[in-house]
Amino acid sequence: MVTSGPAQPPPAEESPFEEILLLCLQRILTDEQPLPFLRWAQKQLVPRLQREEPDLEEIEAPRLAFLLARAIWDATPLPGNGFRARPLNDPHPALSCPCGSGLAYGQCCGAIQNLPVIPLELMWELLLAEIPEPLFRQALASGEVPIPLLGLAAERWLMVDRPGLAIALLEPLFSPEAATQVDERGDHALNVLCDAYDRRDHGKKKRQFLDRMRQHPCRGLRAAAWRRLCTIHIDEGAFIEAQLAYTQAQREAPDNPGTALLEIALLATQHEEDLARDRALFWRHKLRRGEEADIAILDFLAQAGTDPQDALMTSQADILDPCLMDLRDWVQASIRRPLPIYSLVPAPTPLPRPAPAPMAAGARGPAAPPRSGTGESTDTGNNPGSAAGLPSPVPLPQWSQCLEPPRALVALERDWHRIYPGTKPLGPQLVLPPASPHPWEPDEGLAEDWLDFLNDHPEAADSLDILDDLVTALYVHPDTALSWVRHTLVTPLLARAQAILGQVPLAGGQATLPWDAAANRPALRLLFRHYLSQVESGAEAAAIASLETLLRLNPWDHHGLRADLMNHYLREGDDAAALALARRYPEDRLVDLVYGEVLALYRGGAAQQARQALHRAQGQLPLIPRYLTQKRVARPPTRERTPTPTSAETAWCYRESMRDVWSAVPGLLDWLKRQAG
User: What is the rounded distance in angstroms from the CA atom of residue 444 to the CA atom of residue 302?
Assistant: First the structure.
């Protein structure tokens, strides 16, 4: 998901003063006549001012109401006057003061030196949001709209899904001919133009625009361009480029609050939470010293000093799906519940058999998404010629168990599935089956129905079945592309699932939870997703522990997770654990285990055993040595939906995933080339 520029703090609630401005503007637009407006203001504003300022003397409230109303009139662009203001002339000093005090104007309001002044741009901002589209078009055509507010005008076009009009309005503003007409106040317009390009899928045009803006004569706009480039790189996961862009933005505008927000986003996306907290507190201290410190930004930085990810989600509340914000409230309240106790019952027969050998896990790499070719089916995987081999020793049948929820949850889960539209994913996948209804379908209001169910039943957080559905729903929501949405919503649910499983009495570690038992699948899928979350956050040791738990609970490993575990062991240099895993699946045909054993033996100094293991590996998977030893290999054409273990596609995927580990061992690739002939 492409974010709409750098993260912004949540908008502050409308102040009483802003309410007064809006009410006055609405009244002015009814007839654009000053005297009726001033009479109206005396009746409407005096009570409001007395409520807001109870210490005002009786004569001061009418006086303040008149002065404020006049300042608002003088600053309001009038459609009937070509969208120009029509300021009032001062009354004669001897005339009765319009505030109604009974005094002469020269002795009353005319004698006040520090009269209130309403900025013209403030009234334009309110006007552009208030007037109907025909007047809005006239306002733009008048040429009177202040240049810094053209971004707000273009944003209105985006809100009604007219990005072409937004582009047409803003592109001339940033043309080379107009370079001297716009200053740092045009940074909002720059981001709106980029958003409009995104809506039209003009990615190349947006990049060209930002590259040009990096050379703009205004430092503030150069900084805005660098900030936008930084967010693009963050969305792409290109963190080195993002850091370089951030450094340039900071150099151009070191005191800009947007630079502070961008740094927090950059650090939080890379799961550098501790550093993000420290930098948030640093920026808050720095910005508080400014004369015009923004309260909303300071509040954001205060929240980021405690929880950067949650602060970022709050900062984008106005552009995120409101259903996600409702779900966040439920998650934060429900995960504090006491943990339920699940029990174990014997699993039904027949026992699980070895799974088919899936495509190499190396096709994904440690941090990539799960397989796309596996499925959650009742097939035990006993396909002739493709069996991966049972684990050794084979788990005893009496230890095969099924998770059973507390009795109170059984009826709750039944009611849940009557309301929740989604079906279970295939295998440990993160996505729904193609024919499944989408749980966030906006046209049918599906999300509102199951969110209402959750709000009525906080105990739903005790159900692994429901937690599994919620995590699935979150993974298919486009906003979870943002790391802070995943951290705020997905991570707590996964942590609760793991804590619930930690309460299950597993008979000293001997009990297993076979995947073939449908009751076990939500728990196993949640554990797998917890593993992926740990990989994403860089918690390597915790990720390895999660995979070890999954293999202990489901040693038949229907989805080839042992391949991920083998590659983790090898990357961490734990050759003993890698060899133990290979011995645990002695008949395995997964490339990661077969060649992982060769790598671990060679690296451990067991050259003779490594040659023997390589001879066996070549007999099963002959293409791997050639793909590993060549410096450059073109990706072979994909001929199969799910590549077989012996295919060139599997060999190429393993090379892409693990060649860096092989090449890091001195002499290993040369040895492999000689031995393989």
Answer: 39
What count of residues does the chain have?
677
The dihedrals phi and psi of 578, each to the nearest 5 degrees, come to: -65, -45
From 124, 38, 45, 137, select the one nearest 85 (Cα to Cα): 124
> Whose CA is closest to 318, among 4, 577, 635?
4
Rounded to an integer, what distance in angstroms lies between the CA atom of residue 257 and that of residue 8? 9
What 3-state DSSP class applies to 371?
coil
Nearest to 484 by CA among 354, 314, 301, 239: 314
- In this prediction, what percent of the chain has a pLDDT beyond 90? 54
* pLDDT confidence of residue 387: 36
The more confident residue out of 381 and 73 is 73
Identify the DSSP state of 96. Answer: B
Q: Which of 176, 163, 165, 174 is nearest to 202 (CA)?
A: 163
Per-residue pLDDT tens over the stretch 74-125: 999 999 999 999 999 988 999 999 888 889 999 998 888 877 788 888 999 8
pTM of structure? 0.75
Tens-digit pLDDT profile for residues 270-316: 889 999 999 999 999 888 887 667 788 899 999 999 999 999 988 88
Q: Which of these, 132, 145, 195, lies nearest to 173 by C-alpha position?
A: 145
Q: Does residue 491 contact residue 307 with C-beta atoms inside 8 Å? A: no
**Tens digits of residue pLDDT in 45-62:** 988 888 888 887 777 888
Q: Where are the domains of the chain?
A: 16-122, 255-318, 320-352+400-557
* Other residues' Cβ atoms within 10 Å of the Cβ of residue 482: 23
188, 165 in Cβ contact below 8 A? no
pLDDT tens-digit map of 118-177: 888 899 989 988 888 889 889 888 889 888 888 888 988 888 899 999 999 899 888 888
Amino acid 219 reads R
331 Cα distance to chain centroid: 17
CB 425 within 8 A of CB 376: yes
Q: Is the distance from CB of 543 to CB of 571 less than 8 angstroms?
A: no
3-state secondary structure 403-419: EECCHHHHHHHHHHHHH
Encoded tokens for 31: 């007839």
Phi/psi for 218 (5° steps) reads -90, 125
Q: What pLDDT does 56 receive?
A: 77
Q: Is 126 helix (H, G, I), strand (E, B) or coil?
A: helix
d(CA 92, CA 249): 54
- pLDDT for 2 equals 38
Task: Specify the 3-state DSSP secondary structure of 19.
Answer: helix
Rounded mean pLDDT of the chain? 86
- Residue entry with tokens 């293991």: 613
The residue ranking higher by pLDDT, 181 or 527, is 527
Least confident of 260-274, 453-467, 522-536, 637-651: 637-651
Amino acid residing at 452: D
- Could you give the angle at the alpha carbon of 50 between the alpha carbons of 44 and 55, nearest 5°? 160
Do residues 362 and 653 lie in contact, with contact meaning Cβ atoms separated by under 8 Å? yes
Residue 529 CB partners (closer than 8 Å, separation 6+): 428, 430, 471, 475, 490, 494
Cβ-defined contacts of 29-33 (< 8 Å, 24+)? 29/79, 29/130, 29/131, 32/78, 32/79, 32/80, 32/81
563 near 550, Cβ under 8 Å?
A: no
